[in-house]
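Protein in question filed below.

…
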Amino acid sequence: MQKTKLTFWQMWNISFGFFGVQIAYSLQNANISRIFATLGADPHNLSFFWILPPLMGLIVQPLVGKYSDRTWTRLGRRIPYLFLGSIIAILVMCMLPNAGNFGLAVGGAMIFGLISLMLLDTSINVAMQPFKMLVGDMVNEEQKAQAYSIQSFLCNAGSLVGYVFPFVFAWIGIANTAPEGQVPDTVKYAFYIGAAILILCVLFTTFKVKEMPPKEYAEFHGIDPEKKEEKAPGMLTLLKDAPKTFWTVGIVQFFCWAAFLYMWTYTNGAIADTVWGTTDVTSAGYQTAGNWVGMMFAVQAIGSMLWALLIPKFKNIKTAYVVSLLVGALGFLSVFFIHDQYLLIVSFLLIGAAWAAMLAIPFTLLTNSLSGKHIGTYLGLFNGTICIPQIVAAACGGFVLKMVGGAQVSMFVVAAVLLVLGALSVYFVKEKK
């Protein structure tokens, strides 16, 4: 079958719902440490709260891939999952920032927050993974790099919006402090507005994108229809037969995602200490730092969008990968030396280069090495290369923090080293088409 090319706007529509999902994800990333610190968590235990999100992703995304590979409905095979995940995420987004408002003791509020976080990340994972699969399903090999770049752009645009919400709400006069143990209104309203945008974006993709029916899908991916009814191999079998690209890119992923887990966990405490000179989570300075964290993550998203435009200019995709990660490592390292909030803009612009590469290049390398037969399951399994490093980094975070002296800003040096190791690991990546 001649693989037809999609227009720019067709590829845009496939990924547009990702914009809303990423708003939810960015609100979670920018505010989880802030929320749990406000509820009373010890800084040395903060990384443990970050085990839940990747753990749920590790469990959920392979299952979404496996079962959506076998799903055919009037809505399609992937869209029912992203729609269901989004509905649950919206409900939980209205609950999580209110963990301290139900008159519970510190322990009770923590448990409520943890359960809400678990549900939020589970639902975000259910909603997020189908967008990556839709590109693998519907876009030919020549256009995949462009399609994932569009998805990367929308991902970063969604991040930008989610990150700036608390800062903007504080700027227009919404309360940025709250009684001890409660989350400020700036954060609550950010979650509420993010939930509303999420459902609108997902509805857009649901009505705009028509997935291929089974016969057309089989022809598009060169799948023999006579073998369609064979029993699908198990996940362990698929892992055993995975192309080398799967494993070699996974090594790079390990270092990259561990680095960013430390950034998400410790940025608030780091810049509250180095820029605002406080470690008191009840202080106005700490909460102001929390808003500035959102702005810096937004700057990172802008840097990522700009760098994503440069990635296609590289003649070799592996070279683009290496350069991007080294630029990001320089950004991480610079945070350790900077004590001015505005100079941090440069640091996070540089960090955005690594993020742009992480969003686009691994999936381009992987999907080009796969046939279409089990692409959903493989993409779900590949999510393990995102989740496992975060789980390991989160479990070791408190120990590593002690090893580097206890100052949260020191974790940015650790992150820089991890990205350099990731860049060196690109040498081992095996490309296959």
Observations:
- The chain has a mean pLDDT of 85.
- The CA atoms of residues 41 and 167 lie 23 Å apart.
